[in-house]
Amino acid sequence: MKLNLKNPLVFFDLETTGTNINTDRIVEICYLKVYPNGNEEAKTLRINPEMHIPEASSAVHGIFDADVVDCPTFKEVAKDIAKDIEGADIAGFNSNRFDVPVLVEEFLRAGIDIDLTKRKFVDVQVIYHKLEQRTLSAAYKFYCGKNLEDAHTAEADTRATYEVLKAQLDHYPEVLENDINFLSEYSTYSKNVDFAGRIVYDDKGVEVFNFGKYKGIPVSEVLLRDPGYYGWIMNGDFTLNTKNVLTKIRLREGGLTK
Question: Does pTM top 0.70 for this prediction?
Fold first, then answer.
């Protein structure tokens, strides 16, 4: 089934130095931009992460320090990537929980405060897990009837994710709508305010903390009740995006933590 698009949809996949969205870096990015008329543009970039790629990570994606030593840093290509995804909705496999937060962190480190708040995010893994609960390789086999060659390379995983989403629309016409707004909503478990999910919207649309001793408590209430909590987060091991979101809430609430 051809995707019914109002905006371009960018499928993307990252290979990284590890799984910590706060500190690990991108070593490869592939994105496939699908336009409403069906045209496609694909790009794959190797990135110098400016840090050692742990052997355990290299064992998964096959990218070693020597492979990226002469590649550009993310900061050197950040503007081009931001331009390529400008105005597009975003799709991936486990992208809401990992790839999107990591990409946003890299943009922030590069000094690019890209605004993704108006984008729609389609996580093909969430759709798959809600309906079948398997891995990308199994999803590709199940929906597309083919073995996923070169799994854990960004290009192969990106292309497979695109094919799986189209096949899911064919497979579940009674459940899924060929509409990005619907797919974005369906492939989201929670309504994150920040990409790491440390702050979420509750049922009333109020921003609440989603972790720790103040889990479920409105952020504005915590800032008023415990002013030091803001400083603890700002100095702690949290993503730059989480800190930026918290700061915007603090400023909006009139500097409650002063």
Answer: yes
